[in-house]
Fold:
Amino acid sequence: MRTPRPSRRAVLAGTAAVAALTAVPAFGSRAVAAEGAAYRWRNVVIGGTGFVTGVLFHPAVRGLAYARTDIGGAYRWDERAARWTPLTDHIGWDDWNLLGVEALAVDPAHPDRLYAALGTYAQSWAGDGAVLRSEDRGATWTRTDLNVKLGANEDGRGTGERLLVDPRDSDTLWLGTRHDGLLKSTDRGAGWAAVTGFPATATPTGQGITFLVAAGRAVYAGWGDADGTSGTANLYRTTDGTTWQAVPGQPSGTAAKVPVRAAYDTHTRELYVTYADAPGPNGQSDGSVHKLRTTTGRWTDVTPVEPGGTRPDGASDTFGYGGVAVDARRAGTVVVSTNNRWADVDTLFRTTDGGRTWTSLKDVAVFDVSETPFLKWGGDEPKFGWWIQALAVDPYDSKHVVYGTGATLYGTRDLRHWAPRVRGLEETAVRQLISPPAGEAHLISGLGDIGVMYHERLTASPSRGMATNPVSGSATGLAQAAARPAYVVRAGWGDNGNGAHSGDGGRTWAPFAAQPDIAKNAPGPIATDADGSVLLWSFVHWDGTKYPAHRSADNGTTWSEISSFPKGATPVADPADPTLFYAYDTDTGTLYASTDSGLSFTARATGLPAGDSQFKVVAAPGRNGDLWLSAKWNGLHRSTDGGATFTKVDSCWASYTLGFGKAAPGAGYPAIYQVGSTEAITAVLRSDDEARTWVRINDDAHQWGWTGEVIVGDPRVHGRVYLGTNGRGIQYGEPA
Structure:
């Protein structure tokens, strides 16, 4: 990915559903808008699937709520439609790092105002963060770029909101950063300056400020870099908006090392703080809950259960505390969450007496995940959750509680019955897509974290949930036999096997009878020849280490190493000739081919673009030896002789991913879809004339950050295209 350097400008949030079709002529000529059908973009429904890091009810408007995610943008809850509306789909390719939301803030006195702090990674290779501000609840935004980095997908991403409207003055905002201390704006987020009087010292590798919360007219800031020993402060406050001081008497020790979140009870004037020994969401083994009576300065330990006990099976019950939310209608009523509690499974604890006694809501919980069956994870029942740090109680309904997990949002209206509350919220990172030429499903997907799914309908979460037998995590490979579409194979990370095959088009699966030893630690892309008789499996560790590929001619019963196959390359099967396979060595820029069903490979074309992993070879459906090389900034190249020679296509200068779909009426060649650049902007493009000309089929409101992984057209419906995003799920577009 390119490191963006965004400009300061006003932007549109992208709530419109229709994109104009714009013709783009060959590279080097001037782009001219042309008449064309409009495109409608929607999510293929799965439901959540990612880490919801924050949920925020507006304190003054019934039914108004917002959610933030680590890589998938921000959302607004539509109470009437009972679904989430995405608010940041306008973020484009060059600004991909801004699709992660570090924090949200609302203004209690001005219900239409919304603020978002954006920045996915705080690493040196990532772009700086930005603050968006809206006067219409996120329908439109104005943007201010920062000169600091934020980290919505880093450790500590599930801590509290680091952005806050000052309770004394709606024009003043505070922003806590990870490595650059505290920032302040006095013009509603248009300009920002460092707060020089904040007592804690930021470090290049620390957590910095973990939350900002108002308690009356005071503002409290959690500090994630204290060592937990007595006398080291991890909670600060200002009562005048100018001077910051450490809060006296605050708890110390390992269980109170990192203040994770805080919530203020206006009835009792008590601030509840959850703590852990690490910022999370992983790595926590100890934690506590304390409350501070702000009028007297008295601290009280109200921890529901001390971490570290021993279960009956001998396992240690270690965990931290995460979310905390107060009931705005009932004094002393508070809900907190455990986090990273793998042995005994995380829960929510609720108190109605200020923390003297607690009840575990997990113990009486009844779940209904019929709308998103993947949440059963291949079992009979879903578990209560994990990575529970986002937590909110509706200020207008004491029994309406919502909490986030690593895969969804759960909600209840009676403190007993729970169901996902994720309609419209799609956060999947998409790795592979297949649109079968026949059969029940128009789409099979390979996804990050939740494996492979078979989509009977595009408008409902797959009824079978994730692919089982075996259950796997992130998918690394997915392939279908071109002449035998009922045969599909998959690969991915899993504890009980890393590869499987299907004989019914992906509805049901069976594990390979055997697999190479390296598959457990480095599963990679997989391919099957046109008739499904030969498998090629390549192996790449998550750290980038490449291993020899293996071949099977008996449906995965036995495997043999292919020494001549370029290590780590993606195998590509010729769709017309079962004896032909291809592989592109990105290190050397060499196209290899096999004419003996994958037994051996030899170099064909050399001197092609090299040096980056984001090169893809795609075979045109139904054609022998017709290959397209999508070569990132080196553009698009085509071979019609099985890879012996390639010709550069001059209609685009950058091509990040490429796929094919049904030909246009009267056309003799499949429609081509790509994410690429013909002039200045990176866009989703379609060509109906073998890449001589392109039309842009998305618009500025529908960009979804980084979309360079996978795109494929529907072989049965001209114009319909499926696009994989890195955090906004599967988008599908079709002429309106």
In short: The domain at 430-735 is CATH 2.130.10.10 (Methylamine Dehydrogenase; Chain H). Residues 1-36 have pLDDT under 50 and may be disordered.
